[in-house]
Each structure stands twice: as C-alpha cells, then as structure tokens.
Amino acid sequence: MIQDISKKIAWLKTHPKMLEGIFRGIERETLRIQKNGDFSKTTHPYSIGSSLTHKWITTDFSENLLEFVTPTSDNIDYLLSFLKDLHCFTASNIQNERMWPFSIPYCFHDKMSIPIAQYGSSNAGKMKTIYRTGLKNRYGDLINTISGVHYNFSLPVSFWKNWKKNNKQENDTDQISSGYLNLIRNYYRFGWIIPYLFGSSPAISSYFLKNTQKKYKFKKNKENIFYLPWSTSLRLSDIGYANTNILDLNIMFNNLHEYLDSLKNALETPSKKFVNIGLKDINGHFQQLNTNILQIENELYTQIRPKRKTKNGESLIEALKNRGIEYVEIRSLDINPFSPLGINKNQILLLDLFLIWCALIESPKIDKTNFLLITKNWEKIIYEGRKPNQKIYTNNQNETKTLIEISEIIFKDLNQIALILDFNSKDILYQTACRKIKLFFQNPELTYSAQCLKLLIEKGIKKTGLYLSNKYHKKFINSNYLNLNKDILEQETIRSHQQQIQIEKEDILSFEEYIQKK
Fold first, then answer.
1. CA-CA distances (angstroms) from residue 70 to 24, 78, 236, 322, 479?
2. 225 exposed, middle or buried (CB, 10 Å; 0-12, 13-18, 19+)?
3. H/E element holding 26?
4. Which domains occur in the chain, in start order?
5. If you ran DSSP here, which 8-state letter would residue 62 be given?
6. Residues 346, 160: contact at Cβ < 8 Å?
7. pLDDT digits (tens, 9 = 90+) for 409-460
8. CA-based Rg of the chain, rounded to a whole angstrom?
9. Which DSSP helix (H) or strand (E) runs through 398?
10. Using CA atoms, how far apart are residues 101 and 451, in angstroms rounded to an integer?
11. Which residue stretches of 247-333 are H helix?
C-alpha cells in the first residue's frame, strides 16, 4: 500500500539544502460575535480597513465572518507572529465584540439574520457579493458560516528540479505541476490523517441536520447539539461542508490539462438545480452570478487545491494553464479552539512533514473506483475516526489495516524527514512535534476532537466558546502594545479605503457588461 521510500530519504539526506526555502501562508476564518454569543449585527468595521482591498483582513461569506490572510513566508515564527498581530489589531478595534473560537457556529434559533458580505458599489465588489448570494441560494446561509483554516504550502523550485532531473520529457513548469499533482493525489489517499489528528468539530447544531439523511445515530446534549462518540470533523462531512461532488465533475488530479478542462467545463455547464433558482429575482436582482455548476473556481470545495498567484485580470485557470502549479492549498483544517490563532506551530510542523512525504511516495493515477474508496476512508475518519481498532481500506474493499498499523509506517518516514529539516535549522522542532503527535494514534483521547468533545459535553458549547473567546480577546488586547505591525496595519487600513474609492470611481462598464467580460 505504501511504497518504501528509504532510498529517496537517503538521497534527501545527502542533499538537505533541497528542502530549504519552503514557503507557507495561512488563511484563518472566524466569526465576529456579540458578548452573549449571538452573531454580530454590525457591518465589517471601518477601522480595520476595506474588505474589498485590504491585503490581510477581509471577509468570507457573511459580513461578520472575518478572514485573516498572512503574507507568504519561509519563516514559521514570522508567519505566526504576523497572524497574531492581525488578531491583536482587530481585537483592539472591536472592543465590544469577540471572535468565535470554533469552526461550527453556535445557533440559538433558526431565524437568525446572516447578512451577506458587502464590498462596496464597484463592479468587483458587487461580483463578490452576488457570488455569496449564489452560495446562500444554492447551499443555505448558515452552512456557509462554518469556518476553517487554509494552509498554503510550496516546496522550493530547486527541490522539484533536482528531484526529477532525470525526466527529460517535461519542461520545468510541467515537471513542477506534475509533482504537485502527485502530492495532491497522495493527500487524498492519506490526508484523512489531518482530521484524525486535528479535527475539532465532533459536534454540530441541530439546525445543520434538518435536511440531511442521518447515516449515524447522533447523541444530543441539553443545548440541542448533536455529536458522535468517535467523530473528528463534522465540518468536513456532508452535514457541514457545502461540497460539489468532484466525482460528478470527473476531477481526478491526474493531469493538469485534464483538471483545468474539467474545471472549465463545470464553470460553463448549466446545472438544472441552479437554473431552477433563477439568475435574477422578480425585481431584477441577481440571485447568483450564473446558473452553472460552479459560479467561479473557488466554489469547487475540495480537501486540497492546486493554486497559483494570478496577475491583474487573470483567472486562476488561465494562471495555471500559462505558468503551472505554484503551491497547494490545504482546506481540511478545522479551527483549533485551543490556540488563540486557530492553528499552532506543531500543526504547521506536522503538515510540512506530511506534505513532503506526500511528494516523495509514488502516486499512481486515480480513477473513479479508486476515488470512491478514498472517499469512504475519509468518511470513516470524519464520523468514526477515534473508534477503537478503526480500520481503513488499503488497495481495495477487501484489504484493510488499522490506523495504528498505517501510522507506524507513515511516522517512521516522517521522523526521517524531520531529521533532515532539523539538520537545516540546527534544531529538533520537527522531531519533537513528530514524536508528540504520533502519540495521538496510540491514545485517541489526545486528539483535538476528543478534547473538544469532552469540553462540549461537560460544559456546553456556548459556555466553552464564550470562555475561550473572552480569554483570547483579553490576551489580544493586552498584547497589542507589542504589535510590531501596528503602524503597517493602520497604514493599510487607510490605503485600502482609498483604493476602494478609486476602484469605484474608475468603473465605466455596467455590471451586466462587466459580468459578460469575466
């Protein structure tokens, strides 16, 4: 099932510099809430900048769903420090509100008003809002307030060039894209390890279960919160994740051109379900950007995506087609409620090791039969990951191994990769993280989901969420005087508002014309 990569690791040990220059970026979502836990009813605070144009602080689906975006960096400490500064700056500007520390919102009633994010009067701003209106009409508004952390990761170009230097049939761009697609396929095969270790949404409000077939027997607490005894990340399940079935779209990540063709087809093919919603309401207001399977590329919800920075006016498909894959975006991380930032350093260290491992092992192409088996493994971990002696499928439905058996193989390799990275940094951080996190398989009670579930059952989600949000808010406020980026963030706030005004002034096309050109 898992290839022996001892020779590949031995090669890396003789070329450790090939792993210097790993770049990362973090996108963290969090809901602004009132002090009593209700959703904030205020607009995106003017004092933290324009959500349309701010480099690092924006909104996602709703007006109260903040998104913090760090710069890319090859320094983990800088990345976390900058993310902390974003939190401190925001907390100091929303003194009467808090940031919800869980992925799953706590809902008090089913008639909550969830205002869709607004981005001003420009065509670009209107497009962002209408896209979100489409998400609401397609999947519902509450489900779109579920929060997560996205981890962006790229290996050094020198790694890819040297790793496949004997492959004369591919140019550098194709070679790198092929390498990332190998990584992506292996992430699908083995990436269930991430929700097992770090999943933090083992419970969910009853309001999310209304229109869902119950495959599992949920238990319920006095807050009307449903949970499963061994679940890890219900956010990633068909209950909590607004997911377009990539099997139906025939997206297998085997070839970049095939992937882009499939994605393009989804962007151009009408969906009967979404056609029935209608493009506009009776008053002529847009209800979605279009009636196709996907409105835009970002609507493809997957555990991991190939990405590339786009140039002005360029679509993601065009960027990937012209210049290949630049990095991958990991989307299967829940908010870590035990960290004020929603993610901690050990998680980053483990992700680095695991993603390098995914790049090293062989990655046969995936067909629909393979992908169905892969999906079943993810489902097992999401719903019953901590079940004693849990097994997952290996090569077919008749072959299984226990999580402990598979983790032994994976972590043996991860520890060897940790030695190389620690050699480069003259430290033992990767080895230490590897050793600590491996214990999660031997003792599932150490996993984040087990710790979360214990708190939610004993103290309730509202009490726990408010306690943590108040604790973290106080910490951010008290730390703001140490905010090294305070001046930069204040300047960016001013600049972002000025840029939004400029964009709105420069619009010459009607919105209808603007959409047609997109």
1. 9, 10, 24, 26, 18
2. buried
3. strand 23-34
4. 6-517 (3.30.590.20)
5. B
6. no
7. 999 999 999 999 999 999 999 999 999 999 999 999 999 999 999 999 999 9
8. 23
9. none
10. 14
11. 256-268, 272-277, 316-323
